[in-house]
Amino acid sequence: MATGLVQNEVVTGLRPTAEASPRSQLSQWGSAWRYAVMIVVALVVYVIFLGAVLERHDVNPDLIDDQPLWIQVLPLSEVILGLATIGALPFRRRWPLLIAVMSAALMSFSATAIAGAALAATSNATRRRPRSLLVVGIVWLCAGLILSAWSMRPGAVAWVIPVIMMTTYALSVTIGLYVGARRDLIASLRTRAHEAEREAALRVAAARATERTLIAREMHDVLAHRISLIAVHAGALDYRTDLSTERSTEAASLIRENARRALVELRHVLDVLGDRDERSPQPTLAQLEALLEETRQAGMRVTATVAARIEELPDEVSRCAYRVVQESVTNVRKHAPGAQVRLLIEGQPGGILMVEVGNAVPRDRIEAPPHSGHGLAGLSQRVEILDGQFSSGPEDGGFVTRAWLPWRETETA
Questions:
Q1: EC number(s) of the enzyme (predicted)?
Q2: Has residue 267 got a pLDDT over 60?
């Protein structure tokens, strides 16, 4: 549950700065330069086309009022249809095919509309849909044929305008396909970047959860032992009203001393987990006698048999074995006070170190302090990390904890 909360906290904290979509809105500058280029092209086409039509039909600009009606309205119609094409362009991103077809159709009556139609065709090509490209291409071809039919003088080359228009359309489609592919590539890279950020956040969350678990396990191992000793001595003061002043003072001194040691050991744990470069040594089986002596001072009866050269154990194995003994006797003190405790440690290099802690049926019962239920689970994880085996459970009316740890002969303490 803690890990999930941390992961959700980290992942939901990610806020992509831009939507990973190739259809995102253009910037103001991006739109401005496109329209500027289109207007310049439209003006150039307007001048060239209008001059070519007047020349093809031998029209004198000074006598244009004497020409047919369509010649008279041609300059104005070119401007109006060109502006209509430009006015429809802002909607090309919402309805790309419709705007591209409409702009191409207007070219049937206005060559000036070719500038806006080219931009609409480019925008439609960025979608890279073959069917829409084919439809727009057919409309362009038809528009070129119609424009050539009414604007060219009889007998002139009829294929010039359609070829120019289809070449322009091919260039627009090529640019559109390139732009569309580039946008999709950028969108893909953005998606991968966001996924990489999420994966990195999940790895950080998992590392934090692991570190918190390690801190909780170390604090449990250290504080549970000391606090259980304090609880035992405080319980004795509470239930034993016949204690002498000297015994009461001794019990109070033991409570104070264990409280002080709990604080010192807690500080050592935080030093180890917080600064790996300045860590204090963690207890090993070298401190086994001190642990058993504290347990006996708490009123417990402990019988220990050590049939192994524990001073030759590797550090990590010795630390794990110490934690197994510490947690086991702490559990006996909390849940089976007054019970006889037996400890057996045996093994040899190149083989298996076996640690067994068991207790008989308790002779009396008092209210036990609350427990987390994670002590034995933490021991099991410690042992499994070292490729060992762990078991615990009731046996002969009592409770027995066993751990088998590999003792590699090549390693020395």
A1: 2.7.13.3
A2: yes
Tally of CB atoms within 10 A around 405: 24
Phi (first) and psi of residue 93, to 5 degrees: -80, -25
Give the sign of the dihedral formed by CA 176, CA 177, CA 180, CA 186: negative
Residue 248 has pLDDT above 50, yes or no: yes
Query: Which sequence spans correspond to the domains of the chain?
Result: 28-196, 300-364+371-413
Angle at alpha carbon of residue 185, lines to 179 and 186, rounded to 5°: 90
CA dihedral 105→111→117→122, nearest 10 degrees, is: 130
> What is the average pLDDT score of the chain?
75
CATH class of 300-364+371-413: alpha beta
- pLDDT for residue 145 is more than 50: yes
Q: What global pTM score does this model have?
A: 0.43
Q: Helices (DSSP H) in 89-159: which residue ranges?
A: 96-106, 114-125, 130-151
Pairing of the two strands 389-395 and 340-346 = unpaired
> What percentage of residues in the chain have a pLDDT greater than 70?
68
Give the Cα-Cα-Cα angle 125, 106, 22 (nearest 5 degrees): 20
Mean pLDDT for 11-23 is 41
Q: State both tokens at 245.
A: 């002043």
Say which residue the tokens 């008279």 belong to: 72
Q: Residue 82 has which token pair?
A: 């060109």
